[in-house]
Amino acid sequence: MAASGEALTPQGYIQHHLTNLTAGEGIWTWHVDSLFFSVGLGVLFLWVFRSVAKKATTGVPGKLQCFVEMIVEFVDNSVKETFHGKNALIAPLALTIFVWIFLMNFMDMIPVDWLPELAMAMGVPYLKVVPSTDLNITFSLALGVFLLIIYYSIKVKGVSGFAKELTLQPFNHKAMIPVNLLLESVTLIAKPISLALRLFGNLYAGELIFILIALMYGTNLALSALGVTLHLGWLIFHILVITLQAFIFMMLTIVYLSMAHEDH
């Protein structure tokens, strides 16, 4: 597969699938495909859940309503067990994070050539369809969580309380303020970085494995058959990975915001 129609080498095939459709230059480069799919999936999530909420009935629920209620109840229980403060934003935020990231991860279930080939037929040279394999997307999500951590830390503890938390822990002595500030700053900054890199790394690796398996198709009958077997096996296992990564991101967000609400 190539924009000009010629066959790609294995290295070129892999590189082609890992290249974003971009617009702009330098620091103003936009990953158009990542933005399109992430925003589109977010709108899909809001539309489906809003439609179910408007049509909800107290009688026997339909399959979609039952499924949505199971997700909402699961997230609500997770928040109640983990978050120890009082904040009406946390449960909706956790639900949004879990479902939105799951939907972005679920795009990895689509065979790697289907949508890029369709895009090429429409004149689009590159298309990455899994937003969570884009470091810009995962860091944007993590940055949003980080800003909420800072906001609620200051709101609950005050500026002075937050400053004391950074300078008087873990060693409660004025002489240790520089050491405390260094340790606590690293711990604080590590939260969004770990959130972003964990999600990106797992999904990027999973996508790369799908691409490598796709290289086996069309070579010979034995390799193609092996490719189908490996594809199905990895597909089944990857369902667990994409769900687990959405759950971990959600749970860490709840934990971090719960810590931000703790006033020592």
From TrEMBL:
PROSITE patterns: ATPASE_A. It holds the Pfam family ATP-synt_A. This is ATP synthase subunit a. InterPro entries: ATP_syn_F0_a_bact/chloroplast, ATP_synth_F0_asu, ATP_synth_F0_asu_AS, F0_ATP_A_sf. GO terms for cellular component: plasma membrane; proton-transporting ATP synthase complex. One of its GO terms (molecular function) is proton-transporting ATP synthase activity, rotational mechanism. Belongs to the ATPase A chain family. The gene is atpB. The keyword Cell inner membrane applies. The keyword Transcription regulation does not apply. It is found in: Cell membrane; Membrane. It is a multi-pass membrane protein. Keywords: ATP synthesis, Cell inner membrane, Cell membrane, CF(0), Hydrogen ion transport, Ion transport, Membrane, Transmembrane, Transmembrane helix, Transport. GO terms for biological process: proton motive force-driven plasma membrane ATP synthesis. Key component of the proton channel; it plays a direct role in the translocation of protons across the membrane. SUPFAM superfamilies: F1F0 ATP synthase subunit A. HAMAP family: ATP_synth_a_bact. The chain crosses the membrane at residues 27-49, 88-107, 135-154, 203-223, 235-259.
